[in-house]
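Lab meeting prep.
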Amino acid sequence: MKVAVLGASGYTGLELLRILLRHPEFEVAAATSEQRAGRPVGEAFPALRGRLDLDFESVDDAAALAGRVELAFTALPHAASAPAVETLRAAGVRVVDLSADFRLRDLDTYREWYGEHPAPARLGEAVYGLPELHRGALAEASLVAVPGCYPTSALLPLAPLLRADLVETTGLHVDAKSGVSGAGRNLADGYLFAELDGDCRAYQPGFQHRHGPEMEQEASALAGEAVHVSFVPHLLPTTRGMATSVYLRPRFEANAADARRALAEAYADEPFVRLLPEGETPNLRSVVGTNFCDIAFVADDRNHTWITLSTLDNLGKGASGGAVQCANLVCGFEETAGLLDTALLP
């Protein structure tokens, strides 16, 4: 199946190309980049030399892509993605969108965090692209909104506990740390090597980060009632990888065995979520470069607190790997196609 990658020169776009080049069913027929339009892909990014015989195109005429591909991955900036998605969908092309433009279901919430929506009529069409939560809907989807990396890392360990009504829906604290590639290609001072190396800093703590309402939207749907999250993201001095801790209050009648059972049952047959044995904690090296999310559970009985721990690659399961997993479901391919890679050892 021929596909296009819009925004292919960004970090998530390049990761998409890397995955799609080994995919048994997808063929990259077009790759767009405004800054590099007209340049051969392998010239702009030597790692792809000899692997993809295409020139970068401009996204100005998304309609021109419609006759050439059956599915498009849009890895464009927020608000820039929606117009391209609208054009492609109007032409009948299925779209897997990696921006935030279609993640939030409520238009007023979107406006509060991102401003006016360029294609509000499409909000109701989009399926939230977390297969472990919405696999059935994804199989019928024509527009997928790939989750943010932070929500993916928090929701995967949290979902089974909320569905089983084992935890309180207030006082949830999410502490997450991401490699700097999660910010994209940004030349701001805080992302320069000399500024970030050897450092770790929190930013937009509390409920200031745009991924906060996304977490609450999905968590509330799982719980069947409003869920409130306190979220503190951090930047790590590493290129890729994400480590997330979620602190929860168990309901008084629940115990740790219930929680472990809920997690084990939820993820026993999931191809990309690995529940670690009791006493083991997840690490970045085991997931970077892969589509896996590793999860652990800890009960702090002294403080009547449960802790979930997770790691994933923010460009893999947290973005491009998750997008390809969704596309496999949309197209009826094997869900794991192109994604069963192992982390580099060492």
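Slide two material, second protein:
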Amino acid sequence: MKASAERVELAVSKDHAGLRLDRFLVGQLPGLSRTRVQALVDEGRVRVDGVTRKPSHRVESGETVCIEIPAPPPPGVEPEPIPLEILYEDDDIAVVNKPAGMVVHPGAGLHRGTVVAALLNRFGGEGLSTVGGPLRPGIVHRLDKETSGALLVARTDTSHKGLVEEFRERRIEKIYVALLHGNVKGESGRIELPVARDLRRRSRMTARRREGRKARTDWRVLLRIGGFTFVEAGLHTGRTHQIRVHFSAIGCPVVGDTLYGAPREERAGKELLPPLGRNYLHAARIAFDHPITQEHLDIHAPLPPELAGYFERIGRAAGAQPALIDAALKQFL
């Protein structure tokens, strides 16, 4: 039987008046961390006199704060028969082509339909590393929900530790392709801006806080068409939302990425295009040394049909030469 969420009502006394909402809740509910409280606020699970407020809201005497605390997830993940495209597989590692719209592992109230559930169905509980714990078997890195492409998976604890070390030493090459709004200045470049949590919108990251973590993205232009730029981007650090944040910071957000400034409606020439329904960001390639055999592997994930088709449509609407469109796409199909 599925456990239900716990609902707690708290009255604000004079002694607590003026406290930030998140600090008030942490003081009243010591079992919850401030980060957890802020996440519940962002999810709309906290109301003050029936109204959702920001974590920075100052509570007043006589207000009633109601918080809904979801039941904790089960201690593991149930396998689900979700199809996965396997790009490479041996006894130690695997590389899968993650589709857009799929979360890598459970979290933030989402416990089903994850890559982990699909991996458990494909390889079984004993066919994945356990280093990441019961909610993240085999997972050594992540891709955003709306990002598709090559995802590296560890099948043994030994290979997991080896891959973690390669990531730490930045010996794993990750190449993405993205379609951006606007014309990026220059034919190639490097973005080095710190990435940190956006204090105003907790679901976002930002490059505007000096205390953020160092991040570097290298890029080169593949093709410019009608107010859009098709680029290849290489990650030298793996910060949350890094590519999306970096290109948004220079005024060229990823197509479809409304969280970071992309318009909800796309236009190419005079044509109004239908919503893409995802971010135009794809992890096209991952190259690394096998953690056990030391063989150098270079794995390519083909561009999904919806991205190739959208690019072709933009090209036609913008009057671009079909040969140029085909040449730009060919290397990623």
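Talking points for slide two:
The domain at 85-168 is CATH 3.30.2350.10 (Pseudouridine synthase).
DSSP finds seven helices and 17 strands in the chain.
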